[in-house]
Amino acid sequence: MMHGALTVFWREMVKYKRSKGVLFVTIIQPVLWLLLFGVGLGSTFQETEEGVSYVNFLIPGVIALSILFTSLFASFNILLDKEFGLMKEILMAPTSRNQALIGYSLSGLAKNLAQAFAVLFIGIFLMVFSNDNTVLFEESDGVFSLFLWFLLFLFIIVLFSFGFLFLSIAIAARMTSHGGLQAIITLLTLPLFFASEALYPSTDFPVWLSAISTINPLTYAVRVLQIALLGYGFTIGGQDLHYGVQDIVTGFIMLGLFAVIMLYLSIKSFQKIKIW
Amino acid sequence: MIDDNSKVKAKNFETDEIGNDTIVMVKDLVHKYGEFTAVDGISFTVNRGEIFSFLGPNGAGKTTTINVMIGLLKPISGEVYVDGINIIKSSEKVKDKVGIVFQETLLDREMTVWESMEFHGKLYKIPKDERHAKIWELLELVELHEKPDELTKWLSGGMKRRLEIARALMTEPPILFLDEPTLGLDPQGRVLIWEQIEKINKRGTTIFLTTHYMEEADKLANRVFIMDHGKILISGTPERLKDTLGKDVVYLYLMEKERAKGAIEDLDFIREIVEFDKGLELLLHGSGIPLVPRIMEVLDDLKPKLVVDGVNIKRPSLDDVFLYFTGRKIIRENETYKHNFHH
After folding, report:
1. What is this structure's pTM?
2. ipTM of the complex as predicted
3. Whether B87 contacts B258, CB under 8 Å
4. Cis bond leading into B304, ω under 30°?
5. What is the pLDDT of residues A67-119, one digit of tens each?
6. Do A84 and B106 touch (CB under 8 A)?
7. Nearest-CA distance from B182 to chain A in Å?
C-alpha cells in the first residue's frame, strides 16, 4: 500500500547516506549551535542555584530550530528532481503522486530525527559530565514514565517536522528556480525564528510579538519539547516558568492542525507539478 | 444466426483495424502549444517487431508525438492506440506497456548503476528475486554488468544511454521508445548503441526511434517517416525513400548554371534540377551511367561552348532524401521552373 512512498524514501536515504558531507553537517550544525550559542549567550544570563543552565535551556529550542531549517530546505531535493526531470520517472510509474509526496516527507523526517538525536545525545552528555544539576526528562520517575515522556518527545518532533516539510513541499512544487525557493524560505524563517521561545523565554515579549508568537507553530513545538525535557516548571535567568498539561494538549492541537492544513496544501501543489 | 455472424464480423473488423501485428495506431493526431501547431494531423501505424523511425529536424514534432503515445500529453484531437490501449481514454494503463528513454539524460548522479535499476524495478513493483535477476540480465545485455557500483555521474555518455535503455526494459515492455538515443555521442558510442538496439529488437521488442541522424535511421529502421513542421512528408523503407529521388543523383560542376539548365531541363529522364553553389544537382529517372553521356551530348552542342568542370554520379543517400523533402540546406529550383518537372 505504501510501496511507492517507501521506494522514494529508499532512494532519498541511499543518497543521504552517500553524501557523508551533508550528513556530517546536518548533525554537527545543531551541536555547534548548542555549544557556541549556548555558551556565548549563556554567559550573559545570570545563573542561579536552582535554575537550569542556559545551554540546557537551549536544548529543546535548538532541536526545534534544526527541525525547522532542515524541514524547510528538505524540498530542495524535490525542486532539483523537478528541474532535472528525474521526477518524470517517479510520476510516470504506477504509483500515485501522494505516495511520492509521502516518500519525500518521510526522508525529511528521517533527517530531522537524526538531528534531534544528535542534540539529545549532547544534552545527555552535558547532563552527565557537567556539574549542572539539570536532569533531562525531568518529570519522569521510573523507566516506564521515562519511556512515555520519550514517546511524547518523539511524537511532537514527528508532528512538527511534517508540518514544515509539507509547507516546504507546497512551496517547492510550485517553484521553478532554487533562487526563488531559497528567498522565500529565508524570508519565512526569520519571523518564525525570533517570534518563538526557542532562544529565550518570552514572558517579556511586547503585545505584537506575542501575537505572532501565538500563531507560530515553532512556539508550540518549543514549549512541549521544553516540558518534556526540562519539566513543567523551571527557572532560567531568574525567570520562573510554569506550564501545565494543558500546554501539551494545546501544542498537539496546534501542531496537528498545522500539519493537516499543510498536508492539504502540499497535495494540491504536488498535483500541479508538470513534468514535460 | 445472422446476428451472431455480424457480431463476429464487427469484432473481427475492430481487431483488424487495430491489427494483431500492429502495435501502434495513430490517426489524425493534432497537438498545439498555444498558437503553435506542433503536430499537424498525422496518421501512421507501427508493426509489432519492427524498428520504426521518425526522422526530422529539431522542432518537427517528434518528441510531442512520443509524449502523446506514452500518455504524458493529452493531444488536442486524434486517436492513439498502443498495444490495444486507447491512450486518450486511459493513459494510466499504458504505463506498464511502454519503455521510454527521453532525449535528455535522466539519471540520478548520486546513485550507482545498480541502484538506478533497483529504484526503477521497485517503482514498478517487480518482486525482489525477479527484479534482481532482471537487473543482472539487462546490465549484461547493455554491457554494464562490470560496473554495478559505479555512480552514474562517472559514466561516459554512451554508458549513461545504455543504462537508461536497460532501465526502460526492466518492465519488459512490448515497445521501447527512444527519443534521439545517440544525440551528442561520439562515433564509437553511437555504434555500440546501434548494436544494442538491434539486439533488443531481436529479443522481440518493437522499437520506436526518433532521430535527426540520417545514417541512424538508414542503418536501423525497417521503416522511416520523414517529419517536418508537424507533418509526415514521406514514409517507407530507407531503400524506397532513396528511390524516390530517382535512381541516381548527378552533380554537374559548371559556372553557367542558367544556360545549362535551360538546355537540359526538357530531357524526359531528368526529374528535377536543383542549383547548388558549384553547379547543378540533377535527379534522374534512371541509372546515371548511360544517361550522363546523353546529357553531355546536349551540353556539347551548345554554342558558344559551355565548359563543364566535372561530373559526379551518386546513389542518393537518406541525407539527400531528407534535405530534398525538408527543403533545408539545398537550394530548391525557383518557382518559374517548378511546373516544368512536375509534368
Report:
1. 0.83
2. 0.88
3. no
4. yes
5. 998 899 888 989 999 988 899 999 889 889 999 999 999 999 998 898 888 88
6. yes
7. 19
